[in-house]
Input
Amino acid sequence: MYAGTRVLVTGGLGFIGSNLAIRLVERGALVTIVDSSVPGCGANPFNIAPVKDRVRVIEADISDAAQFEDEIRAADVIFNIAGEISHPESMRYPERDLRLNTVAHLRFLLVCRAAHPGVRIVYASTRQIYGRARYLPVDEEHPANPVDFNGIHKRASTQYHLLLSRLGELDAIVLRLTNVYGPRAALNLPHQGFLSTFIRAALLAQPLTVYGDGSSVRDPIYIDDAVEAFLLAGSARVCQSRVYNVGGPETLPVRALAEAVTAIARNPLVVYTPFPVGRESIDVGAFAASSDRIRRELGWSARTRFCDGIRQTLSYYEKHLNAYLRPVESHLELAAQAV
Amino acid sequence: MYAGTRVLVTGGLGFIGSNLAIRLVERGALVTIVDSSVPGCGANPFNIAPVKDRVRVIEADISDAAQFEDEIRAADVIFNIAGEISHPESMRYPERDLRLNTVAHLRFLLVCRAAHPGVRIVYASTRQIYGRARYLPVDEEHPANPVDFNGIHKRASTQYHLLLSRLGELDAIVLRLTNVYGPRAALNLPHQGFLSTFIRAALLAQPLTVYGDGSSVRDPIYIDDAVEAFLLAGSARVCQSRVYNVGGPETLPVRALAEAVTAIARNPLVVYTPFPVGRESIDVGAFAASSDRIRRELGWSARTRFCDGIRQTLSYYEKHLNAYLRPVESHLELAAQAV
Output
């Protein structure tokens, strides 16, 4: 469904963006990636190695969208994936998070609406905007009470997309993703989500660390399933709704997720420790999304069971370990410079 | 209850801030006003004429809070009233609104938490963050789906206050005010709310313009009642909640509000016209707040009936018309410069 389609992917060197870009190329789309490689956000040129001669990469910040206005004008679909995902980093550097997750998106969308009114944009939002679940599974009508700066800022950007769509100036679809895992996530950065931390530990044969007793449930989603949701949202002629939860196929306690990883990796232990200072207060606790709406309206469902997804993930990283475990300069210093 | 108390009022030269500052001085508080007099936000030095020798005025933007860190450290209570209130202007200049209503508040709060951990801050939020009411009256649990940039940005700032309070770094109380009217609102700026427009027209013996058929209800609140809510929120030892609606005592169709103003002003007509292009899409329609929570927890209630409030308002402006109808340089140009 994407053959010959011109597609712009912001954040296309990062985890979700690169997987999406690869799949789009495989389907015959003409893909342009925009990525500023902001330190700490997970951009890695190796991510697009399989398609590097078949995509165009523009090194630019979405804040400076005027630089690639022609590409916005030419795009049939825009996937807006750029952003910072780290919750703890947003607490250390709130202004940096505001700049990356809110200010930049406002500027980007204002250029989009001027350069290409009515263009379809699929935005990568997050379950974080809901905050602590009042009920499970969380549907799209659940109140939004984010528990950290990252959630506040992504909430605001989500609302930008929805406001401009309500006004008829853009045609945005917002996907609220739960914990996404899989190949091409950064493993050399702190605080990219507990699953990346588990996978890194498993690869290094180190113990997996679980905060608290690991009884909170989560519904991780494998990257290929998430990518499929983006493809459907980008190509659906008419969407009844503009906001869709995208959750995983199984809801399991974090403890069980950790044990599944260790079983597949065949050596590391699981260690239970109390939450570090400042971490429990921004933990959302138990979470599982209801993906009924996207199943009903776009025919999407998560297919990859956690065990299978982890197996594929470990197998990818085992082949390309050097590209992902390479130490980066101190993340915190880089992040501070980028404020 | 404020005698001898050190109080900081941001936006203290504006409509709500100046009325609050005057009342605080009358109660014996030691008041410091911070105001940057950003064009378009309603700052008017005449507003504090009655107390001008008894307040200290610091000309500074809350973004640059380091400039008045000592005053933050010394304050027993902070009333954070600074901000842009215009919905249509936020649609014309979204980045300006983001800067004034979100970025500036984040910077301000980060300085507050460092300079004076745990300080009580009362933040002037707005019913705008709720968007279109799904039910009336709107209580504090109503979903927040703002319909314009102003609502999105005030929502984010509200969440900053709540997040930092949940973490124990500040002690913020958020008041969500409905349509506030009364003496000291700017009358020489466009888009400061329909009641300011009505009052200005009445004072100039011009027809009042109502968009649509005026059947949507609203619950305007007189400034003295709003100020009383701030005083209570600033001094309450323990608040069970952190967010309170502050609505008016009567819920009336906009048409009836217009007719009440014309009856009191004794001459202007009411003219009904269709919404201008772009205005209906950001109109929230019928709105009335439930103020049950603040009544129950802080013992506040709105006392001033609309007719009485309008009578006092017109009487104030008739005495001081020159200070409020003085033409300002083009608001839009100034606003654009201030982006």
Q: What stands out?
A: The first strand of chain B starts at residue 6 and ends at 10.
